[in-house]
Amino acid sequence: xxxxxxxxxxxxxxxxxxxxxxxxxxxxxxxxxxxxxxxxxxxxxxxxxxxxxxxxxxxxxxxxxxxxxxxxxxxxxxxxxxxxxxxxxxxxxxxxxxxxxxxxxxxxxxxxxxxxxxxxxxxxxxxxxxxxxxxxxxxxxxxxxxxxxxxxxxxxxxxxxxxxxxxxxxxxxxxxxxxxxxxxxxxxxxxxxxxxxxxxxxxxxxxxxxxxxxxxxxxxxxxxxxxxxxxxxxxxxxxxxxxxxxxxxxxxxxxxxxxxxxxxxxxxxxxxxxxxxxxxxxxxxxxxxxxxxxxxxxxxxxxxxxxxxxxxxxxxxxxxxxxxxxxxxxxxxxxxxxxxxxxxxxxxxxxxxxxxxxxxxxxxxxxxxxxxxxxxxxxxxxxxxxxxxxxxxxxxxxxxxxxxxxxxxxxxxxxxxxxxxxxxxxxxxxxxxxxxxxxxxxxxxxxxxxxxxxxxxxxxxxxxxxxxxxxxxxxxxxxxxxxxxxxxxxxxxxxxxxxxxxxxxxxxxxxxxxxxxxxxxxxxxxxxxxxxxxxxxxxxxxxxxxxxxxxxxxxxxxxxxxxxxxxxxxxxxxxxxx
Length: 578
Known about the structure:
The protein is mainly beta and 578 residues long. It has helices at 336-343, 375-384, 406-409, 471-478, and strands spanning 5-8, 45-50, 64-70, 78-82, 97-103, 115-123, 126-129, 131-136, 158-162, 173-185, 192-207, 227-232, 239-244, 257-261, 264-268, 276-283, 289-294, 296-304, 311-318, 320-330, 352-355, 365-368, 394-398, 400-403, 422-428, 432-433, 439-441, 444-450, 462-470, 486-492, 502-508, 511-520, 525-531, 551-557, 560-566, 576-577. It has a 15-stranded mixed β-sheet that branches. A 5-stranded mixed β-sheet has the order 21-22-2-20-23, with no helix packed on it.
């Protein structure tokens, strides 16, 4: 199988096919080490993979700078140009937007920005300081000229770090994948960071197999390099971007590359259990919105540093096992429900591929990787659970966090959407989960998660849910005063019955922490209701004001409508009050 090449408008995502390999079990019987989802290249086969991407969803494995805008020469449609700098003559337009993506390397000085300040680990109470080893890969096929005055960071790869005393089967090296995206209009002078993602992955370098980058036997050997390519529509000449991603698992290989290049693969290993990592980054500006994490017991610290609006962001949390499902079944073995859905194009939101493409499902090979979030992904997972006996294929020990995308934030409460700051963080070990922050309805924050009932070793899967929300944001939603906030957290199963869960609530340093643990899957709904007691005998003063009542309004934009609830609700930009 050849390395995937694919095309995009601006946002780049990795899409590669995985193939079956022998499963290696951890000492406790949980499948993790060396797991690669099966993907049999046979006609009449259906291959579906429920797993977070092995690389960040922000990119295709390589940094880039691009301009996006309109031109009459492209029949009025938007186009995207790959730029070598913001002063690149072909990108020097009167309108439009610049966007960059890069990975962060270690800070070179005390005043460096958009860099990793440090990473430490704690295992069994012993702290281990991470030691930066090198940038990986060293060769970068797509690059651009950085410009600190514009807050345009250096084009860089990720990095390998060593944690002596935190050994895995491949040694003590870890690949730190810290991706940063930012944008500015051509009229603005500086970039603003818009998205951030960070993963810490146990890895070791291994030589790549000898595979050609194309079907032609004389095509170059695939050295694992990722790159962003300039493409043009044959008819309209409209420019767009294409990409070659990270080296995928070819047939018969056991490499699971979390990054590749220099003819090497940083292949994934299982992280030791119960490790707490702390990662600190310095950013020239704070990402906006919400973040989603694959870690437990989180602590978030954000402080302003010089020059404004720079911030130091520190994230602490414990690794968590995320259940993944790899499916490879014949079309004939599928349930009638699944056949009917896939014959009609599949589940919305999932991009499907094919090999030996045919309208005849007995000749076609259907391949799909549902995104981890969204109602449709939850439905697709639930539809498959009976076929896999409600059991995970593997439980990958994970430490990662990322900002939610614009599409995931669509429809979020206006209080959640305050710009230029992180408003909250959601952490769950569920395979799939609701897109965006919790939905606010009838005074309750609700969030759905879904995962197999059983872990890969046959034991019952125990759910984890952490909601970390800025106190000011919580008070905005409910119209609370600065008095202490009480919270009630409940977990309701698909039958509407309340589950027993361990619940912890607390408020610290401007953040409200809510946690529900030890509930069971397959698709429970987590509900959070905040309240605030008011002393009826208390005399209002400048520091103690009566609790204002929240009001709900309806905002419309064309045929789209949104409800906004707050003390002084305002419609989002572009919307009008109904």
